Amino acid sequence: MTGLHDLLEQAATDPIEVDVAGDLRRGHRALSRRRSHLAVGATGSLAILAAVGVSAVPRHAPEVAAQPADGSTAVAPFQTKYYDVPTPPAGWHVSHERPQYVMLTRDGTISRLDDFAGQLVVIMSDRKENYESATSVQFDGRTVYVNEMNDDATILSVRTSPGGNWLQVQYPKDVFPVHDMVAFLCGVGVEPGAEPAFG
C-alpha cells in the first residue's frame, strides 16, 4: 500500500507541464487525417489522382474526368448580392460577402471580414497567374485546376467563360473531398455586381 500511496502523492505534488494548444493541434491533425482517409474511400480514386498529380507533376499534369453521380449538376443556389453559391456544406453558413468574394464559415464560429484562414471562400480573380500548370479535373464540360501546394488550403480554379476571369474556391486542406468542391465551384453563379479581386 505504501508504493501506491507514494505514487498518488507524487502525482498530486509533481507539477507536469501540459501543452494544451499542442494537444489540440495534434488532435485536429489526427481528425483531418481520419476525415481525409474516409473521404478517399468514399470518393474513390479521384481524390488520390488529384492529390498525387499535383504534388508529383506540377506542369502539364494529366486530366481526370469527374461527373456528378446522378448525371445532373442542378443544385438549388444560395443567393447573395454578388454570387449564387450551391447550398453550403453541412455545418457551414455564408458569413461575409464583398463584390470580390463570398465567405462561408463553420457554424458556431466567428469569422472576420477579409480573413480567409480556415474559411471556405469563393473568389473571382483576373490574375494572370499560370493556374493551368496544376492538375486538371474535367467536370460537366469545364476544366477545373487543382492546387494543393499550400500547407493549409486547397485552391480550385475555373474560368467564368473562355478567356474570362478566374472563379476560385479556397478551403481548408483535408476538410472536403476534392470532387465535392469541384462540383461546388462549378455550381457558383456570378451576379452582375461581382468584381475581380485583383485588377
Description:
- 29% of the residues lie in helices and 29% in strands.
- The radius of gyration is 21 Å and the shape is elongated.
- Helix 2 (20-43) packs across helix 3 (45-56).
- The N and C termini lie far apart (76 Å).
- It contains four helices and eleven strands; from the N terminus they run αααββββββββββαβ.
- The chain has 199 residues and is α+β, with helices and mostly antiparallel strands.
- Strand 9 (153-159) and strand 10 (166-172) form a beta hairpin.
- It has one domain (21-190): 3-Layer(aba) Sandwich (Protein Transport Mog1p, Chain A).
- It has an eight-stranded mixed beta sheet with strand order 1-7-8-9-10-6-5-4, with helices on one face.
Topology of this structure?
Blueprint: H1 2-13, H2 20-43, H3 45-56, E1 63-66, E2 77-79, E3 83-86, E4 92-98, E5 101-106, E6 120-125, E7 135-139, E8 142-147, E9 153-159, E10 166-172, H4 178-186, E11 189-190
Shape: elongated
Mean pLDDT: 73
> End-to-end distance, in Å?
76 Å
Number of strands: 11
- Helix count, per DSSP? 4
- CATH hierarchy: architecture: 3-Layer(aba) Sandwich
CATH fold name, please? Protein Transport Mog1p, Chain A
Biggest sheet, open or closed, and with what strands and sense?
Answer: 8 strands, mixed
Question: How is the largest sheet built, in terms of strand order?
Answer: 1-7-8-9-10-6-5-4
Along the chain, the helix and strand elements come as HHHEEEEEEEEEEHE
| Total individual domains | 1
Proportion of residues in extended strands: 25-35%
Radius of gyration: 21 Å
CATH class bucket: Alpha Beta
Q: Approximately how much helix is present in the residues?
A: 25-40%
